[in-house]
Amino acid sequence: MKKHYIIDTNVMIHDPYFLYKFEDNHVIIPLICIEELDGLKNAKGITGYHSRESLRVINRFRSLETPLEKGVALPEGGTLRVEMNHMDFTDMPDALDATKNDNKILAIVWNLKRINDKQGQQTILVSKDLAMSIKGDSLGLEVQDYENDKVDVNRLYEGYQEIVAKEEELLAIATEGLPVEALSEEIITYENHFIEARDADREEERILARISNARVVPLMHSKRLLYGLKPLNREQKFAFELLFDESVRLVTMTGGAGSGKTLMAMAAALELYYSGFYKKIVLVRPVVPAGEDIGFLPGTEDEKLKPWMGPFYDSVETLLYLKSRYAKGLDHTPETFINQLKDMGALEIKTFNYMRGRTLERAIVVVDEAQQITPHLAKLMLTRAGNDSKFIFLGDPTDNQIDSVLVDSKSNGLVYLIDRMKSYDITGHVTLKHVERSPLAMLAEASL
Questions:
Q1: What is the pTM of this model?
Q2: pLDDT tens, position by position, 94-121
Q3: Same fold: 4-144 with 222-447
Q4: Which CATH superfamily groups domain 4-144?
C-alpha cells in the first residue's frame, strides 16, 4: 500500500533533491511550504541556495497536461502533489495558534489523515523541526525525520583499528609488508585504513601500519615535518600519511577542539604548495555563527570573510613561528603573509556561495567546520575537484558543535562524506581523539 508523505519546508531546504527519495509513494507539499521557500529564496548562505534549488527541482515536474494540484508522476513510480486545501482547524485543540504556518501544516496533515485512514492508507508528516514533531505526535499524527541521508554515528568509520598480531607478523610488516589475508586477526580492508598492531605476548612491541595495495605496510611519513609541524600522537601520525600522500585526493578528519585538525590541514596546504606541484590553496568555511549573529559586515568579500577565518589565521601564526624559513622572504606576521599569498594568486578564501560552477585544478582545498554543511553542499564542493587537486574536510560532527538548523550529528555533510567515501583508494579518514592544544583545553574538552 502506497504511503502519503507530507513534506515540511525544512526538509526541502535540507535536501533539495528530496523528491527522488520516496520510492513509489505519494509526496505532498502544502502550498504554504512553497510560499515559505519563496520567502527564503533570497536568504544568505545555505538556506537561500537550497531554497532556490528546491524550487528548481519542483519546477521540473510541472506539466501542461496535469497541474501539480492534481498530482504528477515521479520517476520512481510515485506522485507529487501540491496541496491547496484541508487547512481546517475544526476539532483540533484550541491551544494551536491558527495563524502560524507550522500549525497550518499540522492541520493539513490532520485532515488528510482522516481521509486516508478511511481508505486504509498511511499518512506521514516528514519534518526536521523538533517542535513540529512534538506537536504532531501529541495530536496522534505519525511524524518522521528525514532519514535518507542519515548516518549511524555510533558506527561511523574511524579510519583505524587496534589488533593483536604474532611476532613474525610484526616483523614482516616492519620490513617488506604483509598481505592482508596473511594476518591472523581479521581487519577492515579498505585502502588507506590504519592499524596499530601489538604483540600478543609483549605489550610494548607495537607497530603503526597502513593498508596499501592489499598489503599491511609500515607508515612512511610519521617522522617527517609538515611545515615545521610534527605529529604528537598516533592519530596525528595517521593523518600525516594521508596529507603527504599525493595519491589520496580526499582526506577527512574529525575530532574535538584542540585535536589539531585545522593546524595540520594548513601545514599540509603550505607544505604541498611550496613543493611546487600545486598552484594554489583554497580555504572554505561556512558562515554559520555560534551564538548570536553580529549582523551585516561592511567591506570587500575578503573583509567580510575575515571574522570567520580566525582559525586559519591562528594556524598560520603558529606555523610561521615553527618554521619561518618556508616564508621565503615574506613578512612573518600572519595577516601580511596571507595577503602576500593572495596577491601572488596562491591563496583564495571563500564561502560555499562562490563555489558553484568552478573547477579547481592543482589546488589544495581545505573545508573547515564541515559538520555545518548539508550532504548536498558536501557533494557540490567535492564535485569542484579538477585534475590533481586534494580536498581536506575537517570538523567535529557532534551535536554540540553544530549551529546550523539544517543538519544534526547524523545528517551533516561531513559524516555523509566519511560514510559514503570510506572504501575508495583515493580517499582516507582519521578520527582524532586527543586534545593537544594545551592542558587547559584538554581539561575543558574532557570535563565540560
A1: 0.79
A2: 999 999 999 999 999 999 999 999 999 9
A3: yes
A4: 5'-nuclease (3.40.50.1010)
Q: Any idea where the domains of the chain sit in the sequence?
A: 4-144, 152-218, 222-447
Helix axis angle, 261-274 to 310-322, nearest 10°: 60
Q: What is the mean pLDDT of residues 326-345?
A: 72
The CATH number, out of the four listed (3.40.50.300, 3.30.450.20, 3.40.50.10740, 1.20.120.1730), of the domain defined by the range 222-447: 3.40.50.300
